[in-house]
């Protein structure tokens, strides 16, 4: 298990989850154990990235990812030091082949993203300011199960959460600003479409 400070890039997080578990299926508990229960940024990034990939087409996967995101974000908001997830979420599994496909699909973008990120406006992703993006992620995670009714629509919300989570991982506050703008734009477009 790496130290949470070693998980400072998207590529390292992806490589770390590749080692999770030892069977043909990988559970949420396997991933949490591999990452460490005190690394909230990476633990939010993983379900968000999975929900962005084509794997999000698996029935129930977007809802599960959304619930995990909401629980991780809530615990960030209240300042917990170690992550707690209920047993029914920890026992959820996905085929290792799907997880490997998602990782491979994200490998090249991860290298590009890692070259573009840096420790900029870091105060925005550290307490007390980190409560704001964590609260937005909490709301996004709660909405994602409902978006499963529209195929792949949860991927858009997961994309914004990915930016927020990556901002926590890399301590890049600019990503948090961009994610906030993305959520605001998506919310405005949804509102105008309903009115």
Q: What ranges have pLDDT less than 50 throughout 5 or more consecutive residues? A: none
Order of strands, widest sheet = 1-2
Backbone structural class: mainly alpha
Number of spatially distinct domains? 1
Q: Distance between termini?
A: 49 Å
How many β-strand runs?
Answer: 2
The percent range for helix content is: 55-70%
For the biggest sheet, the summary is: 2 strands, antiparallel
The helix-strand sequence is HEHHHHEHHHH
Mean residue pLDDT: 85
Proportion of beta-strand residues: under 5%
* Radius of gyration using CA atoms only: 15 Å
Q: Please count the helical segments.
A: 9
**Overall 3D shape:** globular
SSE blueprint:
Elements lengths: L9 H9 L6 E3 H8 L4 H13 L8 H17 L9 H4 L2 E3 H21 L14 H17 L6 H17 L2 H22 L1
Antiparallel strand pairs: 1-2
Helix pairs in contact: 1-6, 3-4, 3-8, 4-7, 7-8, 8-9
Provide structural commentary.
The chain has 195 residues and is mainly alpha-helical. The protein has one domain. It is 66% helix and 3% strand. The chain is built from 9 helices and 2 strands, in the order αβααααβαααα. It has helices at 10-18, 28-35, 40-52, 61-77, 87-90, 96-116, 131-147, 154-170, 173-194, and strands at residues 25-27, 93-95. A two-stranded antiparallel ribbon has the order 1-2. Helix 3 runs antiparallel to helix 8. The protein is globular. 41% of the residues are buried.
């Amino acid at each position: 298990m790496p130290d949470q400070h070693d998980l400072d890039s998207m590529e390292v997080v992806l490589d770390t989850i590749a080692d999770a578990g030892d069977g043909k299926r990988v559970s949420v508990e396997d991933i949490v154990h591999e990452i460490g229960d005190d690394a909230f940024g990476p633990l939010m990034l993983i379900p968000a990235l999975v929900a962005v990939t084509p794997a999000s087409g698996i029935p129930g996967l977007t809802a599960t990812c959304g619930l995990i995101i909401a629980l991780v974000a809530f615990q960030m908001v209240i300042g917990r030091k170690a992550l707690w997830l209920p047993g029914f979420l920890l026992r959820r599994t996905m085929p290792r082949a799907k997880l490997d496909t998602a990782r491979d699909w994200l490998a090249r973008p991860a290298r590009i993203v890692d070259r573009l990120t840096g420790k900029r406006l870091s105060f925005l992703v550290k307490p007390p300011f980190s409560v704001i993006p964590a609260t937005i992620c909490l709301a996004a995670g709660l909405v994602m199960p409902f978006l499963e009714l529209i195929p792949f629509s949860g991927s858009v919300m997961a994309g914004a959460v990915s930016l927020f989570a990556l901002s926590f991982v890399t301590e890049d506050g600019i990503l948090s600003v961009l994610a906030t703008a993305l959520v605001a734009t998506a919310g405005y477009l949804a509102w105008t479409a309903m009115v």
